[in-house]
């Protein structure tokens, strides 16, 4: 009676803590045994020379096999049989070099990828080990690299036509297993790239972040350069959400920022002069002491925003389509709005104490319940403005373009 063949199994990359087992009748059963005995999710088997074993019939008695969870064969020093040292040094080096070349690329190979014009350098192990079923792993594993005919740039880096801004946090996640988003990086953009590359562990993390709406980043103020990169990388048909982002002291002057969601963002001391903020959402944002002179604020939503001490001379709030800027409940103490176009603006229950609205166009503006104490309204046009319940104590109404009717103000 012929004895049942036996095989020795080791985890890929090591000859430590192996196990000896009887050879079953099929590959599926052998993989199950390997998973159980070596506590690894066995998916592939390799010979000592790195050849992939895909049929049970080719395995012989006393064969040594290395078990992989999907990653390529890794020829570590403990796996590799060292050449004899009885020959001369030159011959030894030559044989070692030939042995390495025959073994093919290993996971310690350095790989360069050109993503959207930006060069990234990493190891093969980083790209294939953590997410072995991902597109990146399939592109750069030992079996595929030699068959992959993707274009390369002049330096030899693989060309990938994706966004470098969103690829960087994905690469760092593969390196150390943590998601770290730099200030201002949109998690939705990273999510799309994670789906494209098949990094599904990261997809789940990002979906949870987006669903909960929790802020990301370390709170460091975003610079103009960083923000312009984000603007360029964001498709025009996608909403850019910058809730809670810190723009303290940033120079954002003359930028086109239309339709961006800036809820609860911090613009303290920021320069937004000449910027186009039409239809932006700035609800509960901090714009204290910010410079917005000459900014376009048509249809802006600034409910309960803090604009105390802001410089807003010559701003335009009037939308020709009739869309009203909503600044209800804003804190605008000491704001300078001289010569601004504010027709139809909603300033209900806002605080404009000690503000300067000299020569402003406030036709049809809603100022019901607004605190206008000590405001300078000299030369304003308040025709059809609603001042019911407004506090006008100490306010200056000299050189008015149109008279104020008693029905417009009751305090």
Please provide a written account of the structure.
- Residues 76-105 have low confidence and may be disordered.
- It is rod-shaped and about 110 Å long.
- The chain has helices at residues 27-38, 89-103, 124-128, 135-140, 142-145, 164-176, 187-197, 200-212, 224-233; strands spanning 6-11, 19-22, 44-46, 52-53, 63-68, 110-115, 118-123, 158-160.
- It has a five-stranded mixed sheet, covered by helices on one side. It has a three-stranded mixed sheet with strand order 7-6-8.
- Helix 6 (164-176) crosses helix 7 and helix 7 (187-197) runs antiparallel to helix 8.
- It is of the alpha/beta class.
- The longest helix has 15 residues, at 89-103.
Compute the separation of the termini in Å.
Answer: 111 Å
- On the 0 to 100 scale, the average pLDDT is 82
Figure out the total of helices. 9
Largest sheet: 5 strands, mixed
How much of the sequence is in beta strands?
5-15%
The chain-level structural class is: alpha/beta
Physical arrangement of strands within the biggest beta sheet:
2-1-5-3-4
What Rg do the Cα atoms give?
33 Å
Number-wise, the strands total 8
The share of residues in helices is 10-25%
Shape: rod-shaped
- SSE succession: EEHEEEHEEHHHEHHHH
Low-pLDDT ranges: 76-105
């Amino acid at each position: 009676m012929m004895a049942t063949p036996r095989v020795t199994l080791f985890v890929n990359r090591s000859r430590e803590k192996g196990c000896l087992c009887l050879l079953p009748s099929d590959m599926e059963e052998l993989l199950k045994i390997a998973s159980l005995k070596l506590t690894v999710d066995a998916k592939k088997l390799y010979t000592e020379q790195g050849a992939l074993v895909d049929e049970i019939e080719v395995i012989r008695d006393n064969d040594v096999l290395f078990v992989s969870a999907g990653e390529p064969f890794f020829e570590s020093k403990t796996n590799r049989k060292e050449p004899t040292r009885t020959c001369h040094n030159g011959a030894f080096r030559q044989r070692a070099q030939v042995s390495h070349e025959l073994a093919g690329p290993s996971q310690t190979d350095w790989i360069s990828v050109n993503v959207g014009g930006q060069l990234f350098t990493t190891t093969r192990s980083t790209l294939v080990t953590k997410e072995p079923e991902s597109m990146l792993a399939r592109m750069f594993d030992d079996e595929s690299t030699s068959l992959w005919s993707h274009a390369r740039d002049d330096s030899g880096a693989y060309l990938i036509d994706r966004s470098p801004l969103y690829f960087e946090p994905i690469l760092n996640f593969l390196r150390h297993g943590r998601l770290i988003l730099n200030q201002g990086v949109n998690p939705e953009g990273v999510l799309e790239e994670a789906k494209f590359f098949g990094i599904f562990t990261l997809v789940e993390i990002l979906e949870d972040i987006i669903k909960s709406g929790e802020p990301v980043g370390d709170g460091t103020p975003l610079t103009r350069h960083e923000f312009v990169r984000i603007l360029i990388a964001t498709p025009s048909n996608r909403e850019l959400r910058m809730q809670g982002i810190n723009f303290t002291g940033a120079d954002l002057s003359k930028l086109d920022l239309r339709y961006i969601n800036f809820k609860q963002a911090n613009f303290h001391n920021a320069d937004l002069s000449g910027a186009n903020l039409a239809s932006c959402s700035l609800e509960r944002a901090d714009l204290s002491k910010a410079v917005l002179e000459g900014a376009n604020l048509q249809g802006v939503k600034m409910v309960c925003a803090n604009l105390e001490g802001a410089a807003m001379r010559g701003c335009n709030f009037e939308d020709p389509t009739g869309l009203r800027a909503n600044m209800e409940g804003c804190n605008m103490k000491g704001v300078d709005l001289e010569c601004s176009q504010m027709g139809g603006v909603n300033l209900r229950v806002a605080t404009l104490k000690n503000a300067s609205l000299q020569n402003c166009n406030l036709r049809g503006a809603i100022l019901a319940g607004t605190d206008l104490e000590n405001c300078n309204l000299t030369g304003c046009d308040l025709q059809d403005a609603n001042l019911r319940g407004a506090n006008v104590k100490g306010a200056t109404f000299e050189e008015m373009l149109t008279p104020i009717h008693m029905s417009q103000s009751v305090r």
